[in-house]
Predict the 3D structure of the following.
Amino acid sequence: MSIEIRNIEKRFGNFTALDNVSLKVESGELLALLGPSGCGKTTLLRIIAGLEQPDAGQVLFSGADTTHTHVSERQVGFVFQHYALFRHMTVFDNVAFGLSVRPRKLRPSREEIRERVMKLLKMVQLDWLADAYPAQLSGGQRQRIALARSLAVEPSVLLLDEPFGALDAKVRKDLRRWLRDLHHQMHITSVFVTHDQEEALEVSDRVVVMDHGHIEQIGRPDDIYENPATPFVTRFLGDVNLFHGRVDGGHFTHGNFAHALDDGAQAASDSAVAYVRPHDLDISRLAGGALATGSIEHIHAVGPLVRIEVAPDSGDAIEVALSKDRYRELGLMLGDKVFVTPKKLSVFVGAQDYAI
Amino acid sequence: MASRSLLTSEQAWVRYALTTFALLFLLVFLLVPLVSVFWEALSKGWELYAAALTEYEAWQAIKLTLIAAAISVPLNLVFGVAAAWAIARFEFRGKSLLTTLIDLPFSVSPVVAGLMYVLLFGSHGWLGNWLSAHDIQIIFAVPGIVLATVFVTFPFVARELIPLMQAQGQDEEQAAIVLGASGFAAFWHVTLPNIKWGLLYGVILTNARAMGEFGAVSVVSGHIRGETNTIPLHVEILYNEYNFVGAFACASILAMLALVTLAIKTVIEWRIERQHEASLVRTQQARAALV
């Protein structure tokens, strides 16, 4: 089932949570809503579920207007950040709940319910916990049960609100891989909310980056990462170095250094910012193609990448990530005077310094 | 106690002294008075005790007390759940006013509560003329006693539930509704089981107060023997007449009632705990079978 969101507005008092948001989720797609806390991503998810009413705009499921359809009739599965398992019921009864509260005419028989619940519990690999109460489970187990419970009613849409937010890093990594595999098997249209860019980029088919109640960019994970549309997206998706300068004649100028731009069509401007990720920077002992110069202040050589901080004459330290091989080849030492060369840079004209 | 860290625990004599003090306090102020009620009631033997309870006026007082409790407990149960639901789940204008109003019976002296009803419904009260014209008697009659009882027991259930429901949040109810449950099904299968202990406790407190209320009921009752006396009022009358066996026999009924409700609560708690333990054992067996 596809989901379409048209011009949704939502305010809480004076706070605008969603400002004219439109979005289409394709059938069978796994979409991530990514953004900092307070950007409106959870509100948007709850509006899709029907747990919140928008002040204006429409929600369409497969082209049919569902804006005023009651939550219980939308056939959505919703996974809550804090699991929301029924604490007084066993795991089995939790998963069976959606089936056993159906009106008598639509309710499957006891045996059918039992069969379906056990099948789902096997799928989440927790059938041996059927008799346990939620309080006896770990966080990861609880979230898997919550997922099984939401799938028991065979929803046409699966919505997940920060599903791994309350789990520790290791479990989180396992579970998100598991969710992606599950989605590949079932192909149910899914939307999940996260503030973790790594999670969004790794799991989803497409990512929607949001800030302050509006959408900054929609795209495939690699596309968003390689070609961020705005300074906000650039900064939100990972570490980035800022170089202030100006653009004219197809060049970006920063201090005494100039760098040719790929698309010479950039409008000339006196105030432009170049954003370069640490691994898109190289270090050289020659000035050719450089963007800045400085002395090496810190070398952090643990892990696959060597992180080097270069202190320019003025401004913030520049962070460079080099491969181990490149680092050895250059033979860098603390205090060395070096040049920093960008392999790739995103220039935003007229952009003010953007704080997150 | 060997595993207890010396760094985080008090010294042994402090612990024992505090425990002893607490136990002594409970003994002197709770247990001894309770025992003395039964002791005094039975001091002249079982026959006099039984006679004191089966006497017409005592029996009428017991009946009236049961009627007042039977009306005010369900009424305040429904009201308490509704008010707690509204306050814990919704934002609306006048919410803080409602919260304050619920507490009013706690902050007003019971005697004042009784007087309010006399001023309102008494023969010289605001509605007195209209009521006597229609031949309705509220003050010095059963309706007045019920009204006063409902008033003083108003806050117990709501007060018990509001913090509980606020702490539990509404995620579980929303999960139930997303899964297709109707509002009533979500309340019945999810909300009610989650609040049942708080609710039971609120009902026990409401019932104890409804049966034991003296001040407010005393003002509106008129103390008509065999007609408008509840157990506490009857106890006072008998005591003032130096009929100690009768007074303590009636008092022992109230005390017994408290003990019975406590026993019921303990039994239910114990059974639930056993159920959870059994599930834990089954889970551990399943885990062992897996490995």
